[in-house]
Amino acid sequence: MLSIEELEATFRSAQAELESYSEQVAAKYRAMIPDSPGWTGPGPDPEAAVARSRVVSDTERVKIARLRQAAMEASLLLARARMASRFEGGEDG
């Protein structure tokens, strides 16, 4: 069984991988479909954002979903380990 510290490291790693890949995909599509030159509002151009989300490939969507699932599973394992530690009277950091 992994220690709480190992589970925390696994969770942080999974979360970082998800964030990194998501940012790469977002940057790729922002470069392909930039905001309209006439867009002056705060944040991204909503029409461009919709267009970007429509063109994300199925492969990229699947990879993001798998990374998200891995991060959630690591989070659940960490939460279970922390609860078990509390019930056993140990410290969970």
Protein topology:
Elements: H1 4-32, H2 46-55, H3 58-87
Short description:
With 93 residues, this protein is an all-alpha fold. 74% of the residues lie in helices and 0% in strands.
Describe this structure in words.
The chain has 93 residues and is mainly alpha-helical. 74% of the residues lie in helices and 0% in strands. The chain has three helices and no strands. The protein has helices at 4-32, 46-55, 58-87. Helix 1 (4-32) crosses helix 2 and helix 1 runs antiparallel to helix 3. The mean pLDDT is 91.
Observed structural traits:
93 residues, mainly alpha
* Beta-strand residue percentage: under 5%
Low-confidence stretches: none
Order of helices and strands: HHH
Q: By helix and strand content, what is the structural category?
A: mainly alpha
N-to-C terminal Cα separation, in Å? 17 Å
**Can you summarize the main beta sheet?**
none
Q: What is the mean predicted local confidence, pLDDT? A: 91
By DSSP (H or I, 4+ residues per run), the number of helices equals: 3
Query: What's the helical proportion of residues?
Result: over 70%
Q: What would you call the shape? A: elongated
- From the alpha-carbon coordinates, what is the Rg to the nearest angstrom? 19 Å
Please count the beta strands (DSSP E, at least 2 residues each).
Answer: 0
